[in-house]
Amino acid sequence: MTTINVKSGEYRKQPVRNMQFRLVKGFQTNKKGSYVTVKNEGHFPIAIDEIQIKVDHISDIEFLEGEPMTTTTTTLKVTETDAEAMDRIATRFKILDEMSAACINGDVRAMIVSGPPGVGKSYGVEQQLEKASMFDRISGNRIRYNVVKGAMTALGLYAQLYKYSDKKNILVFDDCDSVFMDDLALNILKAALDSGKNRKICWNSDSALMRREGIPDSFNFNGSAIFITNLKFENVKSKKLQDHLEALESRCHFLDLTIDSERDKMLRIRQVHRDAANGLFGDYHFVDGEGAVVLDFMEQNKTKLRELSIRMALKIADLVKMSPTNWRVLAQNTVFKRG
Fold it and tell me: pLDDT for 286-312, tens place per residue?
C-alpha cells in the first residue's frame, strides 16, 4: 500500500503537519474542497478506520512509497497552475462588473452572485453603482439605487421595491438571505422578477407604514435587483430553501465566483494584490516588501486564521503598520482561531 506524508492539511479542524499515513484513495476534489483518504491507524483517537484529510493542493502530499493514486477529475483539476487559477478568478470578477453594469442600465433584470465572504463581491457591485451614480450626485438628483443588508420583513421588501420601482433603479440585497425563508417575501420577489412584460406587485393587507409613506397597495416594478450571497446553492440541504432558491434562480442570471477552496481564497487575495494599481496594500505605503510578507504569513498560517479573506489581509496589514517588530505576536492573539 502507498505511504504518503501530508505536509499540510486538516482533519476535523485539527492541523495535520508532516504526518505519515497509508493511502486508501488518492487526491480528490468535490464541492467541499480537496482531500485524500487514508488509514487512521491510531493517528486520531476515534473508532474510524479510514479518514479523509483535507488539503488545499496535491503539492501538500508527498509520496514516500508506492505509486501515486489519482483520479481523472483530480488530474484535470491539478493541471491548473496558480497563475491560471488567478486568471480564472479575475475573469469571474470582470464578468461581475459587466453584469452589474447591465443591471444598472436595465438590460438585465436580476442577478444572483454567490461566493464566500470577504472576497470582494459587495465591493465590486458597489463600485459599479458608485460609478453609475456619479453624475446624479454632482447634479443633486435622487440616487437610483439602494443596498439592503441584514434581515428584512416582507412588508419592508415591498416598500423598498416600490421606492426603487422605476426603470434603471436597482436594489442590491447583500447577505439578506432571510427573504429566501419567508414565503410572503419570496412571492413578492417572484412577482418583481417575473419574466413577463408587466411585473405587478400587490399587498392586500392594511398597513400603517404604507399609509404613512404613501405606498399604494399595488404597483409595477420596472427596476432591477442584485442578490449577493455566501450561500453555495448546490450545498443547501433544506428542501424548502432549495425550492425557494430554484424559484429565484430561474428568474435571475446566476454567477458563481468559483472560489471553492482555501487555495482559491488565498489566490483571490493574491490576484487582487497582483492586479490592483498600487497593490492590495497601496494605502499602507509599505516598504521593504511588507505586503509580500503579509501574504506569505497568511499562506503559512491559513489553517489557523479565523478566515481567509481580503479583510483578513488588511487586518494583518494594520498590525504591521501599528507594530513593525511585534505584529506576528499580535496576529497570533487577535486573528488566529482559539485553541
Answer: 988 899 999 999 999 999 999 999 999
Are 80 and 67 in contact by the 8 Å Cβ rule? The answer is: no
Q: Going by C-beta distance under 8 Å and a sequence separation of 6 or more, which residues neighbour residue 203?
A: 155, 158, 210, 215, 217, 218
Amino acid, res. 26: G
Instruction: Mention every residue, 6+ apart, whose C-beta is less than 8 A from residue 321.
Output: 284
Contacts 24+ apart (CB under 8 A), 235-244: 235/31, 235/32, 240/181, 241/180, 241/181, 244/180, 244/181, 244/186
pLDDT tens digits for 8-19? 889 988 889 889
CA distance 5 to 8: 9
Joined together, the cell numbers standing for residue 254 give 446566476
Output b/e per residue, 111-126; b: 16+ Cβ within 10 A. Answer: bbbbbbebbbbbebbb
Spell out the domains of the chain, with CATH numbers in brackets: 3-78 (no CATH), 82-256 (3.40.50.300), 262-334 (no CATH)
Amino acid code (one letter) for 23: L
Cβ atoms 334, 319 nearer than 8 A: yes
What is the reported pTM? 0.71
150 contacts 176 by C-beta, under 8 angstroms: yes
Beta bridge partners of 33: 30
**What b/e sequence results for 3-17 when a residue is b if at least 16 CB atoms lie within 10 Å of its CB, and e otherwise?**
ebebebbbbeeeebe
